[in-house]
Specification:
By secondary structure, the protein is of the alpha/beta class. The chain is built from 17 helices and 17 strands. It has a six-stranded parallel β-sheet, with helices on both faces. Strands 9-8-10-11-14 form a five-stranded parallel β-sheet, with helices on both faces. A two-stranded antiparallel ribbon has the order 1-2. Helix 15 links the parallel strand 15 and strand 16.
Amino acid sequence: MAAMGVLAMVTLWIGVLSSPHRDMPIPPNDLSLPIFSRSSSFSSPTSYLPSLMSSSFHPVISPRSLISDAQQRHGVLTSAKFKPSVFLNRLSQRFSGSIRDLKKKRFPESNSLVFTDDLETQLSRLIQERKRKRAEKPSDRVSVPAIAFDIDGVFKMGGQYTDFGAEALRKVIDAGIPYVLMTNGGGGRTEPQYAAEMNKKLRAVDDENHAIDEYITKDQMILSYTPFDSDLAHLKNEPVLLVGCRRVIDAANYYGFKKAVHLSEYTCNHPLMNPFGKSGVEKDDCVINLEREEWNEDFKAILVFTDPEDFFEGVQVLTDVLLSSRPGEVEYEPERRIPIVFSNPDLLWKTQYAHARFGQGAFRLALEVCYKARMQALGLSEKQIEERLGDFVQYGKPEISQFLHTKRAMLNQANAIGCDISHYYMVGDNPASDIAGAKNMDDRALQNDEKRWSGYLVKTGVYRDGDESGNPTEISGNVLDSVDHILDAHKDEIADLKKKKKVFSRSGGFL
């Protein structure tokens, strides 16, 4: 009877704690589950947000874009499924990790949750923790600003970093407020690699009397393809074709894509696909033996991490793969469709060259035009063509999906220091991505009664005089000017944060 009583109590508390109406010290469900978007015009996306414990979807629709039903058919949009491990992890987040010690010990074949013998002791401790958190008044939590920074054109021009960028980050760190760096690039690096490289280069340009060891951590890096890790988890055991520089294969392996094939490897196995490649048919002295060539890859998706090394090869081969799983044997398979996921919509970006250069957005534009022309040549109807173009999925700024990942990272930092976020800022040089993204998020905030966003445009990158197309809140000379303005506007909040000695520790704790 005692055992039955304990089990009943467990069931009751699980029901109470898993209620979606309970207040939670973790980001809301629209930030803690995968989000996908598609926007063929590079405008703000439509996002489908899975509910916390349900398989149903609740659309949050932007009036400026539409989402293709094909994405749901491809499995790009996935629903959350209840799993005991996921449930326990969510409970552990609510109780500061103390439930992680609870183990499933008896009756492993049972679907019910059965914990260890010290259940009553554990539950008592969790109950007390919950009561303590309930007793904490909202006024006890300080609200501070959070800042998302672009990288290229803000902290660096190509590989050349700036001293004022290093000083700006030091001021933000000293203020103790949440911040992240988000870029529409990444260059095939992993987040730890990019953070380590930035820290090294920022130290080199910073004032030697003030330089610090760590300006940024891996958890504060949002690369253009960072969302692939969580949002494309259902493809990690499926064959996918990777596009980008050679080292993107390392990033894909870091995320856990076990069957990823780089475009260069694919074309090496099928050299005749690119007539202008190293072994193409235009080389008269090259004879290709096709007797052993096999077309068994059957890719489930194409992931564009960075711009392709060979622009023509990318356009030609991706068009072939989008049309057929066996391009060398069957030119077009009407019933087969796969998504192609882009990480960066930027048409232009800033390097050390005097003028802006084409980015991944230019490659998508070229591919879309050529793919459409190829389908027209094959006799597809306009409806069929539009449906297939709907297989293009876009990440990167200004997409809402990208900014929601950034928002989640900043909320995680705020929760770590026991504070709330009063206002979100985006500091960048590109009106079409940085400022437009902040505007998209502010429109969403107004619709959902959330904290507002502001876009600060700096003049150190692709910005040109008179370019205010994204309606920036403020135009600054550089990132240091922007940081000074933001910190001054929130100086009282920051002072309150420091008084409570809850300054953010970049290692995840308190100072």
